Automatic annotation (TrEMBL):
Cellular location(s): Cell membrane; Membrane
Transmembrane segments: 31-49, 88-107, 119-146, 166-195, 207-238
Keyword Cell membrane: yes
Oligomeric and partner information: The Tat system comprises two distinct complexes: a TatABC complex, containing multiple copies of TatA, TatB and TatC subunits, and a separate TatA complex, containing only TatA subunits. Substrates initially bind to the TatABC complex, which probably triggers association of the separate TatA complex to form the active translocon.
GO terms for cellular component: TAT protein transport complex
Family listed: Belongs to the TatC family.
Protein's name in the database: Sec-independent protein translocase protein TatC
Alphabetized HAMAP family for the sequence: TatC
NCBIfam families per the UniProt record, alphabetical: tatC (TIGR00945)
Species of origin: Acinetobacter cumulans
């Protein structure tokens, strides 16, 4: 009696390929509904604390302002909209692990077993690095930049920053540093999928360092301090991703 052939490893992938596009969209809608629901829940839970949250974010600026200066609102709705926008941003940041997990659950069936084992640590690492980037911007970069700009202002000018302008400045800075701290993950993924090798990255290191300063020049305020405080971490994070890539390349080379 002949034995039945073993089921193919790609059966699950073949089923996904044969699934109509509308079915994929229906499944994606389910995950998106969960993301929106959790984000809105966090938003409304944090809403009573929106003014306190804005006070925390404005603390680095208020510490640098002279005793006679305060923050101002140039628009009637600014006193409501600025804390409201910040509250939404904080809700999204707190929901980020859940958002990433839902997206991971959606794409997980399309991945092979080896890809699943690598994807989860990379996702956890990307979330952690994003939070570290925002913390670095808030505790280190933002106070240094504010101190520089206020210290160079003319004596006849009393610095009074609009709360909406300050919010936009901070959120841009947080996003830039949060995304910048993803460089090790991006470098590692490019190495693992074979787009680049560690040897080619080492050979192009000088161009990458120049590129870090070039990107920082456009992504930060127009001063040398901001540019250096972004470019140097970008360079160090690239070196970290390169180091991790070298460790992961060794087991692959021994297996082959």
């Amino acid at each position: 009696m002949n034995e039945l052939p073993a089921p193919s490893v790609k059966t699950e992938h073949e089923q996904l390929d044969q699934m109509p596009v509308m079915q994929h969209l229906i499944i994606l809608r389910k995950y998106l509904f969960k993301i929106v629901a959790v984000t809105l829940l966090l938003f409304f839970c944090l809403l009573p604390f929106r003014n306190f949250t804005y006070q925390l974010m404005s603390e680095p600026l208020r510490q640098q302002l002279p005793a006679s200066s305060t923050m101002i609102a140039t628009d009637v709705t600014a006193t409501f909209m600025a804390p409201f926008k910040l509250n939404l941003f904080v809700a999204l940041m707190l929901a980020m692990p859940f958002i990433i997990y839902q997206l991971w659950a959606f794409v997980r069936p399309a991945l092979y077993e080896k890809e699943r084992h690598l994807a989860m640590p990379l996702l956890i690492g990307s979330i952690a690095l994003f939070y570290v980037g925002i913390a670095f911007a808030y505790f280190i970069t933002l106070p240094a930049i504010l101190h520089f700009f206020i210290s160079v202002s003319p004596e006849s000018v009393a610095p009074m920053t609009d709360i909406n302008s300050y919010l936009s400045f901070c959120l841009k800075l947080f996003l830039v540093f949060g995304l910048t701290f993803e460089i090790p993950i991006i470098t590692l993924v490019l190495i693992l999928i074979g787009v680049v090798s560690t040897q080619s990255l080492v050979e192009k290191r000088r161009f990458i360092v120049v590129g870090c300063f070039f990107v920082a020049m456009f992504a930060t305020p127009p001063d040398a301090l901001s540019m250096v405080m972004l470019a140097v971490p970008m360079w160090m994070l690239f070196e970290l991703g390169l180091l991790l890539g070298k460790f992961l390349e060794k087991p692959q080379s021994t297996d082959t």
